[in-house]
Amino acid sequence: MSVEQTATTRRVTRPRLLITQVLAELSRFATAQEITDILRERGTRIGTATAYRNVQMMASQGEFDVIHVNGEALYRECSDQHHHHHIVCHECGRTIEIEIPGLEQWIDKAAKQLKYQTIAHELEIFDLCPKCAAKHAIEPPLSVGTSPKDGPLTTPDDTGRRRSNK
């Protein structure tokens, strides 16, 4: 949600505006403490408790996405307001919004087969982005399937034929 949209949906306080601006500039998830630290580096002070209270409230209103990593909540302003997932770099936190064709149907089918009723789901993929992988000399796979309906992921072997990564 943009700063302009924020102003039209509810009363805008200075802390909410500052938090929204910080998250709009980041391409990764951030903790409330990180947001507070960024604001302090810019010479702006808001209390840590104020930051926590505001990001939690704004996330509960759907203004930010939230994920939990090692028991800590991380927040991100997403450009895409419909249901989506993220791939997050485990090292630098760079985050990309992704859609996985067929995933929703696969989840519904799996739940039905197991006699569960789907209420909600969250999927966050943690990996290394190309930049961080390069620092560790880890090469990304050459070719991967694009959705659960494609079956197992595959990569070409030395002969150029596909082999399963099972």
From TrEMBL:
Matching SUPFAM superfamilies: Winged helix' DNA-binding domain
Binding annotation for Zn(2+): C89, C92, C129, C132
The protein's name: Ferric uptake regulation protein
Region (Disordered), start-end ranges: 140-166
Biological process per Gene Ontology, one example term: regulation of secondary metabolite biosynthetic process
Gene Ontology terms for molecular function: DNA-binding transcription factor activity; transcription cis-regulatory region binding; zinc ion binding
InterPro entries per UniProt: FUR, Fur_C, WH-like_DNA-bd_sf, WH_DNA-bd_sf
Family to which this protein belongs: Belongs to the Fur family.
Names of the cofactor(s): Mn(2+); Fe(2+); Zn(2+)
Cofactor note: Binds 1 Mn(2+) or Fe(2+) ion per subunit.
Quaternary structure and partners: Homodimer.
The keyword tRNA-binding is annotated on this UniProt entry: no
Key words of the record: Cytoplasm, DNA-binding, Iron, Metal-binding, Repressor, Transcription, Transcription regulation, Zinc
